[in-house]
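Researcher: I've got a protein sequence and the SMILES for zinc ion. Could you write out the 3D structure of the bound complex as structure tokens? I'd like something to compare against our soaking experiments later this week.
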Amino acid sequence: MVQRDDLLVLGVDWHVHYDHSAGEIVSAFLKGLGNGVIQGRHCPLCGAVWLPPRAYCERCFVATDQWVSVGPGGVLEAFTIVGQKFDNLPEPPYVIAFARLDGSDSSLANFLTMTLGSVEEMAERLAVGQRIRAEFKPESQRQLRITDFHYVLA
Ligand SMILES: [Zn+2]
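Model: Sure. Here is the predicted complex with zinc ion in place.
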């Protein structure tokens, strides 16, 4: 990285709260998470099950027609180990994983929780293709958010 002594670095805090509609599909998906169920959307033409759920199939450009329960097992398709602290995120190191849950045809990102302590230990333990499973928080702690569950190694 190039550093120049003549350039200023300005610290700025932005605190913006914004309420928006989650829409029909995402609202139903998040309500399902509150009940401990992960559901994708089925395409009537190609049969794909999209997760995160989509109103339209991105292959066929037709409306998806039904909900399909997926998981809790799945396959780790990609991951990153975060070793840097970011505001409003967990203490590093932690893992963000893309997993394709059983019964779905696309990957869903979420935290993958591990008990190992260092980035190196995590990197040695993780591999694309490993089995994972979705594990829900206790019902009383769910907030109708994607973080109502996380992945763990199966
Ligand atoms: Zn389709």
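Model: The chain has one domain: 23-153. Strands lie at 39-42, 49-50, 66-69, 73-82, 94-101, 108-112, 131-136, 149-153.
Researcher: Great, I'll pass this along to the crystallography team.
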